[in-house]
Amino acid sequence: MRFRTMQQLVELCERENKSIGRLMLEEQAKESGKDEQEQFRKMAEYYAIMKEAVHKGLTEDTTSRSGLTGRDAQRVKQYMEHNEAAVGDVAAEAMANALAVSEVNASMGRIIATPTAGSCGIIPGVFVSSQKRFGWDDDTMTYALFAAGAIGFVIANNSFVSGAEGGCQAEVGSAIGMAAGAMTELRGGTPAQAAHAVGLALKNTLGLICDPVGGLVEVPCIVRNGFGAVNALAAADMALAGVRSVIPSDEVIQVMLEVGTSMPEKHRETAKGGLAQTPTGQKIMDQLYRKGAPKQKSGEAARKGAGIAGGAKAETEQGAAAASGAGAETADAGAGKPTS
Rounded to whole angstroms, how far apart are CA atoms 312 and 334? Predict the structure, then answer.
């Protein structure tokens, strides 16, 4: 890749008069040795899987094996049909879609890890709802996924996207930043505005710990995806309105690295701290183990990855930035699996 930072990415796009998505497609093709048409087709397939997951989460039983989660996306959807959502219909739909994909993940369904399985709902939540609202075609959304991949590439190679390495700020935070930057570009924002959206999004998730109850990718992971989709929309709107991230996005990414590195182990996916160790969290863990639920590998760090990876259960696919040397996240979707 010809860029390693958001500043370099923006400068390249401005110099060559290209969108982030277009530039990333070209860079990915060069890096992988495969032609652009093949790279684009593969990414389009990933987006199709995202849409399938949204539909499944909103229409089918998504009760997880643990019984802890399921059908919350449908509850939000039903609420919207009979009530005026306080956040507005647009944000509420993005939230419902994000919950839907995360619940498909927890129920062992097929999802796209963007950038991880634990944060898989945010980009689909934002993209699918926005496509419906603005009438964009699938090709437009596919370019947006390349834009998200470029942002994820920068984050992964300068900080981390794994909850085991840097807490939930690294998973949900990165996904929010990727969605916000891509959404800014979708709405006609400049590369510089997209970079501001990334900075705005990331700095408002700094310090978010990874504390999965029972070691499962369910509580609080799923609801954080719902909130994350709303936050991404807000960051994009701020950037499009001209709000700047006073601390540049590259510096925010470095702070995320600093904060994550100094975060206690118990707050990095070990289920030894945070919500996982509340009285209710411990009770749930005891109940799960009596049922014979598999234990999580405490503190297991995932490989760094900016790629958009997809898989059903243990199947994986490499995505936009995977061939660049950033790696791809494993989408072992479902209860009992590490968050990333």
Answer: 9
Q: Which two tokens stand for residue 221?
A: 């992971």
CA max distance for the chain? 60
CA atoms within 13 A on the CB side of 29: 13
Burial class (CB in 10 A: 0-12, 13-18, 19+), 34: middle
Q: Per this entry, what is the length of the chain? A: 340
Residue 30 tokens, joined:
């060069």
User: Before 220, cis peptide (omega within 30)?
Assistant: yes
Phi/psi at 306 (5° precision): -110, -10
Q: Cβ contacts of residue 237 below 8 Å, gap of 6+?
A: none
Beta strands in 19-158 (DSSP E): 110-113
What residues are paired with 144 via a beta bridge? Answer: none
Strand pairing partners for 268?
A: 210
Residue 29 gets the label, from left (phi > 0), alpha (psi -120 to 50) or beta, of alpha
| CA 272, 311, 330, 99 torsion-angle sign | negative
The pTM (predicted TM-score) of the whole model is: 0.89
Token pair 């206690």 is at which residue? 264
Looking up tokens 């920068």, which residue turns up? Answer: 154
Residues 198 and 244 sit within 8 Å (Cβ to Cβ) = no
Q: How confident is the model over 43-80, as pLDDT tens digits?
A: 999 999 999 999 999 999 999 999 999 999 999 999 99
Per-residue model confidence as pLDDT tens digits over 259-290: 999 999 999 999 999 999 999 999 999 999 88
